[in-house]
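Deliverable D5.2: sample structural annotation.
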Amino acid sequence: MQNKYLHTILVFCVIASLCSCASRKAFTTNYYKENEKTLTSIEQSFKTLYDKKHFSVGFSDRSFNYISLEIITDSIKYIYEFEISEPRLQDTLRKYGFEVSGMLGLVKQMQSIHCIWINNLDYYTNNQKRSMVFMSIRHVAVHLPFTSEKYYILTFYSQPQYFDSDGMLLAGRRMRKLRKINDDIFRRINDKVAYTVSERYR
């Protein structure tokens, strides 16, 4: 009886794994193309706002009603949590000199496509400092038991990047070394956008 029970669990786990792989493939193949306009708008809005005041922002709950806002000054990082509809959010944005309508618009766009986190990251290529926009997406279409939650990470670059013959992101033009971000390997969507699937969203 016990062996039959264990066999059933094993079969279920295999099926769950296969479904998860199929889901990831479908997501990475279709998601960017279907949401390119919104994703590009989020990237551009974030860059415009970030150039004025350094920050990162994301959702801290599964219902996408609460945000975590990190405000970065020259010496201190302030971390706040708000419900997106509470007046305290707008008061805090005004206090730190943010463009309130732009920030709220960014949050609404992120909410609409389940973008759980957005941030600016620095990297170096050919000894030059560059920056990328790092965006995490929570894929909520499929939830399988006994499987860890995965996040779909997109990175946006201002300059075309280099990829190997398998489409994996490289550290530079003359370097065959892969560029890893948070120890994850990224793959090509186009010359300026790459993606990975990770257990970490930031």
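Annotation notes: The first strand starts at residue 55 and ends at 59. Confidence is low (pLDDT under 50) at residues 6-23.
The annotation will be released with the project's public dataset once the embargo ends.
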